[in-house]
Amino acid sequence: MATNFKSHLPIIDISPLLVKCDDSDMMEDAGVAEVVGKLDRACRDVGFFYVVGHGVSESLMKKVKEMTHRFFELPYEEKLKIKITPAAGYRGYQRIGVNFTSGKQDFHEAIDCYREFKQGKYGETGKVLEGTNQWPENPQEYKELMNEYIKLCTDLSRNILRGISLALGGSPNEFEGEMVGDPFWVMRIIGYPGVNQDNVIGCGAHTDYGLLTLINQDDDKTALQVKNLAGDWISAIPIPGSFICNIGDMLKILSNGVYESTLHRVINNSPLYRVCIAFFYETNFDAMVEPLDIFKEKYPGNEGAQVSKKVVYGEHLVNKVQTTFANLVELI
Predict the structure, then answer these.
(1) Taking phi first (over 0 means left), then psi (-120 to 50 degrees means alpha), and beta for anything else, what does residue 102 get?
(2) CA-CA distances (angstroms) from residue 247 to 63, 120, 212, 297?
(3) 303: Cβ–Cβ under 8 A, 6 or more apart, which residues?
(4) What is the per-residue pLDDT across 266-292, written as a single tens digit (0 to 9) for each?
(5) What element of type H or E holds 50?
(6) Structural contact between residues 210 and 149, judged by C-beta atoms closer than 8 angstroms
């Protein structure tokens, strides 16, 4: 299991990787090789790490959080103008108590967004998520800001995944093509109300079910916790200007279990409202996710972590969404 760490998450400056990200021989660069080594250790030992030197401006990251705060400060009736429904493709605003993790209600509200796609592109499976993302009219320009942010997160995730591919001993583009050549994405814009009591679960313990997650959280509130091998919950203290990146279940499968997704949860013990923008970078919607041959060959003795599971990502996602929002009609 990956969670062999005691008190803090590693910090990785990926700027050398970004400079060489389009070079097929990037591993010949000493700076890239150092970043790749750090990615490998972080993914094996923790499954979580801070990303700095990522090229997304701190001012943009702050603006995204500031405008998100402004949306969640609106009256409930105003937020409901973009309420989430099955007819809307499970896109839009959900009030507190709608989201469940492992069968238990989470104490947060959110806007859920998915990559938009043409009607019928993914057949009956994709039909569940067909629709356009619902963006609020207030604050103004929120849609434009978030679309710019999504593009930057997509590009950044692709480059981090290239580094992870190298860390596993593959080529930079090992995950491209039929697996991640046309990546799907999910974004959850989450608000956690301040509380005046301990251990109110904002989001219950879970692993992420995709490839990579980029977390942009408020700088002045510590709420995200990561579980280590000893069973201790380690706080992911915010570092201004950084993303927290973690690996998900699909990357565990693709890597043949070499990298493991790690349990985490959110407990906002602060009396202040906290926002977090979580961007989930995924495989192709219709990809059959199974261990890649190159990693089965490279890690044949990895008996304890052998992964035999095969899953079509889109089917997996739709099942998760429908399970999470099984009582949506009654709750909204």
Answers:
(1) left
(2) 26, 30, 5, 22
(3) none
(4) 999 889 999 999 999 999 999 999 999
(5) strand 48-52
(6) no
- 259 neighbors 198 (Cβ within 8 angstroms): no
Query: CA 304, CA 142: separation in Å to the nearest integer?
Result: 46
pLDDT, tens digit, for every residue of 197-236?
A: 777 889 988 999 999 999 999 999 999 999 987 889 999 9
The answer to whether 9 and 222 are in contact (CB under 8 A) is no
Question: To which residue do tokens 């495989």 refer?
Answer: 283
Both structure tokens of 332: 């909204």
| Residue 80 near residue 69, CB atoms below 8 Å | no
- Distance, in Å, from the CA atom of 109 to the CA atom of 188, rounded to the nearest integer, reads 10
In this structure, what are the phi and psi dihedrals at residue 232, rounded to the nearest 5 degrees? -85, 145
CB 163 within 8 A of CB 39: yes
Q: DSSP E strands: which ranges in 137-284?
A: 183-192, 201-206, 212-217, 224-227, 233-235, 243-247, 264-267, 274-284
Contacts of 256 (CB under 8 A, 6+ apart): 291, 292, 295, 296, 299, 302, 305, 306, 307
The whole-angstrom separation of Cα 5 and Cα 229 is 7
Q: Would you say 248 and 264 are in contact if contact means Cβ atoms under 8 Å apart?
A: no
Residue with tokens 């043949």: 256
